[in-house]
Amino acid sequence: MSILNWTYLFVGLSFSLYLFIAWRVRVKDTRGFYVAGRDVPAYANGMATAADWMSAASFISMAGLISTMGYAGSVYLMGWTGGFVLLALCLAPYLRKLGHYTVPEFIGDRYESDVARVIAIVCAVFISFTYVAGQMRGVGVVFSRFLNVDISTGVFIGMFIVFVYATLGGMKGITWTQVAQYWVLITAFLVPTIAISIQLTGHIVPSVGMGATLIEPSVVGQTNFLLNALDSTLTDFGWHFYTEAFEGKWSKFNVFATALTLMVGTAGLPHVIVRFYTVKNVQAARWSAFWALLFISILYLSAPSLASFSRYYMIHTLNGSSSESLPSWFIVGKKRV
Amino acid sequence: MNHPNTPHPSSNSNQQKKHNSYWNKNLKIMSLLLFCWFFFSLGCGVLWVDFLNQWTIPGTGFKLGFWFAQQGSIIAFVIIVFIYALTMNRVDKTENESKLNA
User: In which region does residue A35 sit, left (phi positive, over 0), alpha (psi from -120 to 50) or beta (all else)?
Assistant: First the structure.
């Protein structure tokens, strides 16, 4: 079977799974639609939050960004997960305590003002639109690549699927679909990461492999730790160290400010906040925040490993080839670094 | 959520005291954990990363600062949220029990 057929098979299977779940848990009342009847167990809500929160950016582009940026790529790792900590500590339990359906409702009641509520609605709509635009583009890119269709066609396919299961199942359908999505996502990410980790370092856990020694040392007479080999090869090419902090425009202040901005911004994502309304009580909201971050960390600890593996792999595949025989994207990438 | 220092006129002082002690515990736990949050990520991962990079984690190729930025901070975050859920839920539980006894 060709790669394209395999892709059709897997995409088809995961879509049918999502639609099947949506049909099974379809809802009939308001409580079910907005807050999944408030009976989602903490670990399941954690899994759904993790899938919800790890968007196209985490899944498709983060490892690649870290791979090209090296140390500076850590802003995404620290920024996004650190923002989740703020959300779990400062927002989620208090929002759940008041027990509403949406954030604007909370704001309106907390400040006893309809003006505040309207402002909150405008903000939520604005943030959601901006966010969805990026996500949908991601969906389009994925489908255009895997199904060989136009990016806009890809966007429409994705929109249709989400529309069906969201209107059918409401929050309940979305929750259970996302639990399934988490497993699809983490499997898809970990299989290649573990494979490349075993191939390069012989370690099953990518985070361990990243700090380990290479099976086949590239340069004789040097310490053959992966990161050291990566650093020395990169300097041979005239680039900066992979692990070097603060080079180029990424000064200490810049890294600090970017990480902090990402943290504060992540803490306010409306689609993640709303997830905490679906659990039974405040205590469950706290536990589900823990579960979510635990499930998220599995991907976030593997992504930097994948980044360093692939940078090493790429450099060594290209090493020795002349600049004429290099692919064009490689030249473009070098200019931008 | 009323601010602890501005007592609601209708609440009696005993209840207010209990609420205050609960809120103070809450603040103490939060500020401690937020300090750890800052220390391990923006601290070890950004502010002192070049200083920490002079050491390598024994037996690995990880420079210490780099490890904090790409691995350690995330591990610390998971532990922080775990401790938060554990301690705050315990505080909630004792609070509820004392409410029932009163």
Answer: alpha
